[in-house]
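debug: dumping io for the single-chain case to check the tokenizer round-trip. Nothing else runs in this session.
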Amino acid sequence: MSDLIVSSYNIHKAVGTDMRRDPERTVRVIGELGADIVALQEVDRRFGDRRGVLDPDILRATTGLSPVMLTDRLGERAHGWHGNLLLLRGAEVEAARAVTLPGLEPRGAIVADIRIAGQPLRVIAAHLGLLHQSRLLQARFLSREIEGGDGRPTMVMGDFNEWRLGAGCSLMPLRRELRAVKRSARTIASFPAQMPVLPLDRIIGCRKAEIGDLRAHDSALARKASDHLPIRAALRLPQTQSAVM
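debug: decoded output
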């Protein structure tokens, strides 16, 4: 089976570095990625009815990606959950749920069990908090979501708001508390988009979900469309269900 392309992208509510809100520009960047699975953050407005900033029909037509629908969303006009949206190409959704993350700020994640290219996969898409202690709590919460799965390969991705490495990193529970989580030797700077220096966005493979070729998608359009660059990687899954267990 050839590798799948996966990506995470904080679209900053479709407001670019030129301070213009341009959802169609955001969709064009998503199309540039050519990804099979995309986790988006900040897809909904923060206040009021928290409506989504993208047009799902234009998104499907332009990129071939379809949103994972959630029934327990913040509001009827919101795209996702606390600004998180998961997009898939050619995948069957077996189960998907929104979870609220602990911490002082309102934060959330999507946990989706899917089949893609005939293989089972759990995808966790999240946007972690700005406070270090909150991120520690949220990383522990997500580690339990990995551990509580049915043994299928699992991938965690999103804007983790963490730039530190080593012992001071608030994401250590994802690496230290679960032996199933593979240590990622590389991080990719994705923020700020016009001159990236901080690796705020992450893609982590767990339980035999192999992540390779991790890179930022650095195009002229991406540098204007958001304050974050998208990151993308190749995902390789076990060939058979028996290889997962």
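debug: round-trip ok. The radius of gyration is 16 Å.
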